[in-house]
Amino acid sequence: MAAAGSTSAVRQLRVLLTAVAALIIMLQQLPVPCMATNFVVGDILGWGIPRYPSFYHDWAMSTLPNGFHTGDSLDFVYASGKDSVMQVTVDDYNTCNTMHPIASWSNGPAA
């Protein structure tokens, strides 16, 4: 009788372990919620004429190792009428052409 009881306990343990393993596999398949981050461009200094040529590059590098991800937003904080933000094509950016922006904001702040 003792052997039959231990066989039943082993069988129950196997069923339990199989169920736990299946649950772990199912949980790994669930989508992981990601949190979008709002970045204030330039941090407390905000958006404007950079204090030195690599200011915004240095600021962007300071967000590492995590950096920017899909869903994040860049908030350009500036005084209305004093600065602006333009979305331009790569070609227009590379040639400093502001004649045909994709979008333009001048009433700050812009996100």
From TrEMBL:
Swiss-Prot/TrEMBL keywords: Signal
Domain Phytocyanin: 37-111
SUPFAM superfamilies linked: Cupredoxins
Domain of life: Eukaryota
UniProt cross-references to Gene3D superfamilies, sorted A to Z: Cupredoxins - blue copper proteins
Presence of keyword Signal: yes
Leader peptide range in chain numbering: 1-36
Keyword Nucleotide-binding part of the UniProt annotation: no
Full protein name: Phytocyanin domain-containing protein
Source organism of the structure: Sphagnum jensenii
Origin organism lineage: Eukaryota, Viridiplantae, Streptophyta, Embryophyta, Bryophyta
